[in-house]
């Protein structure tokens, strides 16, 4: 799973690369004529139209690159959402299992702690229940023989 920091750095790098490319592209478009643009009365209309066309081409190129970058970012975010949904599902299953394995006393203690907002204390097994050895946690859901 990509971390938010990695995604931000990658996005910033992509934006910088796009900006540099756009600047160099605009520069190359505007400097394709070997001589500077001269605005005399006979060719001023043609020069303005040529410059407008180049600006429009440059804007279209920038727009297409931005759309590509946005599509890539959307794909990354979709993947992150998919991973988070899977993780949420796993946690919900684990929570459900833990609820079924917990004793009524443990559930009552947990509910009391969540209502008061107090941090969980070390759980002591009830006096009438035998304590499990700490090296053998019970993870199976079936009855023991």
UniProtKB/TrEMBL annotation:
Annotated compartments: Cytoplasm; Nucleus
Biased composition annotated in UniProt, kind: Low complexity: 111-126
Entry GO CC: cytosol; nucleus
Composition-biased stretches (Pro residues): 127-136
Top-level taxonomic group: Eukaryota
Biological source species: Oncorhynchus kisutch (Coho salmon)
A biological-process GO annotation: regulation of transcription by RNA polymerase II
Major localization listed first in the record, in broad terms: cytoplasm
InterPro entries with a match to the protein in the record: TSC22/Bun, TSC22/BUN_CS
Disordered: annotated segments: 103-145
Keyword Nucleus belongs to the record: yes
Stated name of the protein: TSC22 domain family protein 1
Coiled coil residues, start to end: 67-101
Family (UniProt): Belongs to the TSC-22/Dip/Bun family.
A Pfam family annotated for this UniProt entry: TSC22
Keyword Transcription appears in the UniProt entry: yes
UniProt entry keywords in alphabetical sequence: Coiled coil, Cytoplasm, Nucleus, Transcription, Transcription regulation
């Amino acid at each position: 799973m990509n971390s938010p920091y990695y995604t931000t750095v990658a996005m910033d790098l992509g934006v910088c690369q796009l900006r540099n490319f756009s600047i160099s592209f605009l520069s190359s478009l505007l400097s394709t004529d070997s001589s500077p643009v001269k605005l005399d009365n006979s060719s001023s209309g043609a020069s303005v139209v040529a410059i407008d066309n180049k600006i429009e081409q440059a804007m279209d190129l920038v727009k297409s690159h931005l759309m590509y970058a946005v599509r890539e970012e959307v794909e990354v975010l979709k993947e992150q959402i998919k991973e988070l949904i899977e993780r949420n599902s796993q946690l919900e299953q684990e929570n459900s299992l833990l609820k079924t394995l917990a004793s009524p006393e443990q559930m009552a203690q947990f509910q009391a702690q969540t209502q008061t907002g107090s941090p969980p204390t070390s759980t002591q097994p009830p006096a009438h229940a035998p304590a499990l050895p700490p090296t053998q946690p019970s993870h199976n859901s079936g009855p023991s023989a």
